[in-house]
Every structure is written in C-alpha cells, then in structure tokens.
Amino acid sequence: MPIPYYVEKPGDSSNLSKIVNIKNNPDKHAGKFMLTSVAIEPLTPAKYIYDKFVPYYSIDSINNLTDGQSDDEYNKVQNFYMLSSINSAIYNAYKKADKEVESKYNGIYVLGLHKSSFAKYLKVGDTIISVDGKKFNNSESYRNYIFFKKNWRKKLRFNIYKIIN
C-alpha cells in the first residue's frame, strides 16, 4: 500500500558513445561521457523505513515533489522540461557543429497557476500564443504587457494553444 512519499535515488549510468554516433566523426577524446538518470518511486511503509537509511536516497512528500499539482499537471510539467532539454541539446549540437539552426519562440507554456490568477481560463499545459492579438518574442514581454493591463483593470484576450487528451 503506497504512502504519500516518494524516494529519489540514482538511476542508470550508460556510456553515451554506445548510444550516440556521429557519422564520419569518431570520438577521439579520452574518457567517457556518461548518460545518467534519476529514479523517482512511490514508497510503501516498509520501503520508507529501508530507504530512509540508504545513502544518496532522498525522501520527500508527494506535495513537496509535485508542488501540489495533480498527477496530470505534474506529468505535463515534467514532459515540458524533458522536451526543452532535448531541444536545447539538439540546438547546441548544431551550433557546435557550425551547422545552421534556428530557434523559434512560440509563446508561454503554462507550468502552474495561482488560484486567484487566470486559473479559470488557463490550464497547465496550455501555451499562450498571443494576448490581445499581440505576439511577443519572450516571456518577459508577455508578463510586462499582462501586468500593465491587469493593473489598469483592462480585460485581456488570450489566444491559447491547448492539447486535448
């Protein structure tokens, strides 16, 4: 029977050269690049007691781990972070290889909402594409525009991209 606690512990460690190969460009450097992972698992009372004494294991409540988000919201946020990490790695690999690459800003991805904010209109996982028909090139510009309008008690019109499950 699970309890409302999770353990975070070291996961696998794999030699990256076994996973990634660049055609006509063998790795000539000494040493290894290792791909490491972290495992997060729900706990039972018995596992909680055991894991409490294992070095390098960290136990946390579900509320601290998810910041109070539902499973669906938490998974959307984690997926966003993973995709962002992957896309950053791809972008940087192209730059490092002196290949042409472009990054496009698509809007603000909603990672969380305060209950008194726009929670009745927005959900975690939405992407704000424009506000009042205006598109911006960075999140700070969106925030400045929204806070300016909100402070003047003006209504805002959001253009939102939603993923329906």
Which strand order does the major sheet show? Answer: 2-1-3
Question: How much of the residues is beta strand, in percent?
Answer: 15-25%
Q: Structural class from helices and strands?
A: alpha+beta
Shape: flat
Low-confidence stretches: none
Rounded mean pLDDT score: 88
Give the end-to-end Cα distance, rounded to a whole number of Å.
29 Å
The Cα radius of gyration reads 21 Å
Number of strands: 6
Sheet of most strands: 3 strands, antiparallel
Helical content class: 25-40%
Order of helices and strands: EEHEHHEEHE
- By DSSP (H or I, 4+ residues per run), the number of helices equals 4
Give an overview in words.
With 165 residues, this protein is α+β, with helices and mostly antiparallel strands. It is built from 4 helices and 6 strands. It has helices at residues 45-51, 62-66, 71-96, 139-151; strands at residues 3-15, 34-43, 58-61, 108-109, 127-131, 158-161. The chain has a 3-stranded antiparallel beta sheet with strand order 2-1-3. The longest helix is centred in the middle third of the chain and has 26 residues, at 71-96. The radius of gyration is 21 Å and the shape is flat.
Lay out the secondary structure.
Blueprint: E1 3-15, E2 34-43, H1 45-51, E3 58-61, H2 62-66, H3 71-96, E4 108-109, E5 127-131, H4 139-151, E6 158-161
Antiparallel strand pairs: 1-2, 1-3, 4-5, 5-6
Would you kindly provide a brief summary of this structure?
Helix content is 31%, strand content 23%. By secondary structure, the chain is an alpha+beta fold.
Essential attributes:
165 residues; alpha+beta; three-stranded antiparallel sheet; flat
